[in-house]
User: Fold this.
Amino acid sequence: MNTLAELLHALECDAAVPAAIESGAVLALPLPAARLPHAAHVLARSQAHLAGIVCEQRNGSFALRYPFWLPRGLPWLELVIDVAPGGTVPSISPRLFAADWHEREIEDLFGLIFSNHPFLGNFVLHDEVWPEQAFPMRHDFAFTDADGAPSPYQPQQMLQAEGAFLMPVGPVYGGVSEAGQFLLDTLGEEITHCQTRLFYKYRGIEKRAEGMVAADALLLVERMNGTNAFAHALAAAQAIERACDCSVPARAQTLRSFWAELERLRSHAATIAGLCKSTALAVPTSLAYQRVEELLRLSGRHAGHRYLFGLIAAGGLAFDLDDAAARELAAQAQAVARRLADLAEELLFDNSFIDRLEEVGVIDAKVARRYGLVGPVGRAAGHVSDLRREQPYAAYAECTPRVAQAAEGDNLARLRVFLDEAAESARLLPLLATQLPAGTVRGTCATRAGAGLGWTEAPAGASTCFARLDADGRIARLRLMPPAFANWHAYHLAAERFAFQDFPITLASFGLSMAEQDR
Amino acid sequence: MRLWALRGLRTQRDLTGFPRTLELAPGMTPGRPVDGPAAAADVCPTGALRAEGAATVVALDHCVHCQRCRHGGQPMHWREDIAWSHGEGAPLPRAFAHSIHVRVLDAGDCGACLAELQQLPAPQYSLHRLGIFITASPREADVLLVVGPVTRAMRQPLLDTYAAMPGPKRVVAVGACAASGGVFGPSFACAGGVADMLPVDRVVPGCPPPPLAVLEALLAVMGRSLPRAEDAP
Assistant:
């Protein structure tokens, strides 16, 4: 199934075949709910990649959208179904497992029931702090502490055998770490079963954004994951721009790619530093964090903020970067990247370091495909997709990155992919800086109702955002589908079968944010 | 087998002069708005700016560094410093002046404050030289450093961690979220900062506050006197 016509034929949507459609377009396919599992079955066997599920409440009924991206040259497909009040949704998880957590999240936040889902229940809203019948994403949600009686939480030991025990890690654990819990079942040395219990950091961003003007919603999206703020805010800005038909000046498009690559370089450097730290190599850890600090200072000096907050605006960028400064910044970032590469070279020849990484934390290509893994984690396991190449945005159509990949899927493969991608970002920066078009960086956005999809390849992988604006230009629905959500789903598989002391290394090699997952 | 220690020794020193001097390298801090024309207050999304007569007053606890008041038609004045923490709490007793152990607790942080804290051991800041150590166990912690607005699920772990710490102990709220709820709270899912749950001894505003701002606050909690920008000639 290589052409769009063949794919649409298999989906039994021949009527929808448009005359000409290309990358960057979104083709909506309304379906009766009963046909959804079949469509998911077809798409799971094609080159389509599920970005997530968008649930919208429309008065009493619900509309669900399932956006999929296709490889370069083809558009996005969006399956759309309607669910009557009190109705159930046929689950697609048995056929397309990447939808699993999305369906569980919607069940928890909207109270919709997915029939045939393998496992629903306690997910986003922990039973020990939220009452059973609280559905925050519904329009009529009103909540006071007096509502309902939460039930106490006791971690469940899964492994029942002589000498087996459960080791709960978190939500407060060693060093400077994010709040989340890992339940590790073991008979001793080896982790037999790992369960990730997330959403300790659920801040209700999607709910809080409702009713906000677009500019203020972008501040929230930046702070979904502050270390990858620019990439996620760019996805949201693009969704908003599509919703209100806003054109972005060419200079802003190139600068958006420029800042995004600088952020990727810094974010990957931080992941590599975290990996050094997890193996307790003090000198490489210090050297790597020194590089991160140098990149943070470059951002701080030229963007006014070390994490690029406040830079993105609907319609372009909030402020410009002049050509000379861009070239200087690119040259300095490249120098930092070279020092990082020098360190990497030394690391990759350190046997004791390689021993800790090689053939540990393995995710195979089949799992990567089944779980729809994205970003460096997916690419290191041979599941290669990069939205900069597949569905170019900003200036990536003219400035296409080389996509790093590996087949082994272990900690070392992930390290190599992070290193290669950091080097590639450093290569792109001067290219982008020397081809900045002249002009302004801020287009005008009309105030009108509409909906749109936006996407970026964030440092951790594909980040997709859906925005619906009302007639006053305020957010009616903002759906954030970040890469961490796809990758945390499979993390436990990399931890299982390996020893306890490998756990922090595997965790660091995934480079995942819990804040981004929990939102 | 690599000789990492030698490699470390060969590396050029890149350490900040803080706390001996307040001199800053470019990009070390995002700076902060100080005072400006009254009209600038309108652009603030979080109510950190308030017009008072012909001037604008800054409530730094609410500032999320969106930079809108910096680039508008009537920009605020901007001060590139780091010594902006404040608090009513007394410093720890004298015995702690040379060394403290800090437990960092994430109560719903976006990752930026934690990333800045992760930079503290980096060679540019090297917090260990000041006798400050980040510890895993609350049992040996003197200072609880909280980031994030305090989400519903993190309320109890926060209170439990505080209760597990021996006295004397101090609480430092780091970042706009921990100081005031930031962009997230108060809401159905978040509190409006750490002070809703615990007595806070020192607040470090900023979104995120740069590493040196946190270091300055920790030194203040240790009772070490520091140069302040206002004191500079």
